[in-house]
């Protein structure tokens, strides 16, 4: 290739400026195989209890006693699911748990979006102090707020109600932090261009910013939903009537009634309880992992 006369790079080979980037770590074939085998063992160790739970729910109690470590029965049966469904009003408990999880998830997501939006794009006195104060609430143990929250819910007359379970959980410091990090990864020029077009703050949030951070919103919603679905102690304190129980409370009640001997029925009840969170996580696991990986890109 010809070069311009007088060019400062004349006479220098074209590949002189190409720098070869060498990886910091190189694994031999043996090391890569050993590491993959280790990860496989960890995955099997983690998944085994869940697979055993599903397999045991499809066995008879005799088959569980004769061959307790097998993951899949020779003759699957649904008798335990029929028994659980007729002995316990699981449909009602599923609806109760779903409504509590839906209300808490929607409230946490809404407050996290609005707070993260303000902390990311507005400047006001004490912004950083207030943000870190909210973030610190994520590290306050539940036992420190349990009694004040219970007294507040009781004085408001919200015991044995969905609102009583949801009221102390309408905001989340970790959610505000993660969405703030997601908003700060959006180029500021998008926000400034919308402001120059005299677009209102809420329209900027709804039409410009939220579509850009949709994966983070999905991941956060799934995490909020799963955490609320699996919550046991706070609903146990608030819900006094059996008709208002959530699934974790119903599962504990069913286990006590069976006396810890009907393993097949208990595993069927556990499978029904964990089915929806497992499906939700399986559908959104990529967004969840990306959200936590990218949460520290901008600080």
TrEMBL record:
<feature type="domain" description="ABC transmembrane type-1">
    <location>
        <begin position="94"/>
        <end position="284"/>
    </location>
</feature>
<protein>
    <submittedName>
        <fullName>Permease protein of sugar ABC transporter</fullName>
    </submittedName>
</protein>
<keyword id="KW-0472">Membrane</keyword>
<feature type="transmembrane region" description="Helical">
    <location>
        <begin position="98"/>
        <end position="122"/>
    </location>
</feature>
<comment type="similarity">
    <text>Belongs to the binding-protein-dependent transport system permease family.</text>
</comment>
<dbReference type="InterPro" id="IPR000515">
    <property type="entry name" value="MetI-like"/>
</dbReference>
<feature type="transmembrane region" description="Helical">
    <location>
        <begin position="129"/>
        <end position="152"/>
    </location>
</feature>
<keyword id="KW-1133">Transmembrane helix</keyword>
<keyword id="KW-0812">Transmembrane</keyword>
<dbReference type="GO" id="GO:0055085">
    <property type="term" value="P:transmembrane transport"/>
</dbReference>
<keyword id="KW-1003">Cell membrane</keyword>
<dbReference type="GO" id="GO:0005886">
    <property type="term" value="C:plasma membrane"/>
</dbReference>
<feature type="transmembrane region" description="Helical">
    <location>
        <begin position="204"/>
        <end position="226"/>
    </location>
</feature>
<feature type="transmembrane region" description="Helical">
    <location>
        <begin position="158"/>
        <end position="183"/>
    </location>
</feature>
<dbReference type="InterPro" id="IPR035906">
    <property type="entry name" value="MetI-like_sf"/>
</dbReference>
<feature type="transmembrane region" description="Helical">
    <location>
        <begin position="263"/>
        <end position="284"/>
    </location>
</feature>
<keyword id="KW-0813">Transport</keyword>
<feature type="transmembrane region" description="Helical">
    <location>
        <begin position="27"/>
        <end position="48"/>
    </location>
</feature>
<dbReference type="Pfam" id="PF00528">
    <property type="entry name" value="BPD_transp_1"/>
</dbReference>
